[in-house]
Amino acid sequence: MSRGSGPRASLDALGEGAVTTEAISVMRASALERRVAVLGAGSWGTTFAKVLAEGGAEVALWARRPEIAREITETHRNSDYLPGINLPIGLTASSSLRSVLQNAEQVYVSVPSQTLRQNLSDIRDLIPSGVPVISLMKGVEKGTGLRMSEVVIESLGIDPSLVAVASGPNLALEIAKRQPTAAVISSESLETATLVAATATNPYFRSFVNTDVIGTEFGGVLKNLIAVAIGIVDGVGYGENTKASIITRGLAEMTSFAVSFGAKPETLSGLAGLGDLIATCQSPLSRNNTAGRLLGQGYRFDDVVRQMNQTAEGLASVAPILELAARQGVDMPIVTQVAEVLAGTLDPRNIAPHLTETDEPQGE
């Protein structure tokens, strides 16, 4: 399939600070009634489809299970993943990829990270040429260690300027209930990021932009791992001092790791890093926090996976992240101990004191 190069902003001429209110307003006006496709009808995919529809876009949502697609279209509910939430009339769903992708002007992808490559192979020839593809996922691919945007680029043969990622403190159920929040849309093309951010903005959901795709994606991945650690110590019964220590040192691990791959440190202090970390670590709505809490209560890894109704991306990302860290020579003691708990080689009660790999005093 021939892939167009699409919109590309010259960052020499248009830096991040050059995105004016007027530019956003123009993009918002053009975003109204834009036809977009969202692939994946889990809690986050459905919620983001709701965000887009309530921002004025015409949204087609792909659901793997036909019964979910029918429920969304006919009753405007997704009772399996967003119980009690009314969905906009302008949001329709189908189990046909061809139908959902037809005439789409933007494509948002929200599927489990480890099935992304296969899903993309199924849609490669169905995506209209030259349209932006936006990753809503927070994970890295096992075996390759690739970030989700890298898998998109490699699998679709798409120009990187057409790829964007969305991240931030985005707990699905809160957003579905229209509780105010913010997100960041990142692309190497500021024009693409701004276009997507304008589409993904409404009265309760504000999207900011940056061009640090590496930092934005790794922030979204790494906070899940720290959230698992927080869940573990919560399940054990440790208190706020322990959790604050792990969050703080976890942010330091996240930043060191991401910067070693070329991320900007300030990105990890923003919505995609610290903001997402706080939300994911403190909320019982977080799948990764819930998975960690079950581990801390003594459940085995296999039992935790069976109890989780949805994918906890942090569990799948621990091993590939540690492989990447070893390659870069970055120490990640908290993530390492999460891996040991998952493997059953570390008692969950012993995770909290081990905030470093050495007993020698260290600078913060």
TrEMBL record:
Q: Which UniProt keywords apply?
A: Cytoplasm, Lipid biosynthesis, Lipid metabolism, NAD, NADP, Nucleotide-binding, Oxidoreductase, Phospholipid biosynthesis, Phospholipid metabolism
Domain Glycerol-3-phosphate dehydrogenase NAD-dependent C-terminal, first and last residues per copy: 212-351
Query: Which residues are noted in the entry as sn-glycerol 3-phosphate-binding?
Result: K138, G168, K223, D276, S286, R287, N288
Q: Output the superkingdom of the source species.
A: Bacteria
Sites binding NADPH sit at S43, W44, R64, R65, Y81, K138, A172, R287, E313
Q: In what pathway does it function?
A: Membrane lipid metabolism; glycerophospholipid metabolism
Where is this protein primarily located? cytoplasm
The catalytic activity of this protein is classed by the Enzyme Commission as 1.1.1.94
The answer to whether UniProt assigns keyword Nucleotide-binding to this entry is yes
Q: Where is the Glycerol-3-phosphate dehydrogenase NAD-dependent N-terminal domain?
A: 36-192
What reaction is this protein's catalytic activity? sn-glycerol 3-phosphate + NAD(+) = dihydroxyacetone phosphate + NADH + H(+); sn-glycerol 3-phosphate + NADP(+) = dihydroxyacetone phosphate + NADPH + H(+)
Family matches, as Pfam families = NAD_Gly3P_dh_C (PF07479), NAD_Gly3P_dh_N (PF01210)
This molecule's function is given as: Catalyzes the reduction of the glycolytic intermediate dihydroxyacetone phosphate (DHAP) to sn-glycerol 3-phosphate (G3P), the key precursor for phospholipid synthesis.
Entry's PANTHER family? GLYCEROL-3-PHOSPHATE DEHYDROGENASE (PTHR11728), GLYCEROL-3-PHOSPHATE DEHYDROGENASE [NAD(+)] 2, CHLOROPLASTIC (PTHR11728:SF1)
Please report which protein family the annotation says this sequence is part of.
Belongs to the NAD-dependent glycerol-3-phosphate dehydrogenase family.
List the protein's name. Answer: Glycerol-3-phosphate dehydrogenase [NAD(P)+]
Q: Which organism is it from?
A: Frondihabitans cladoniiphilus
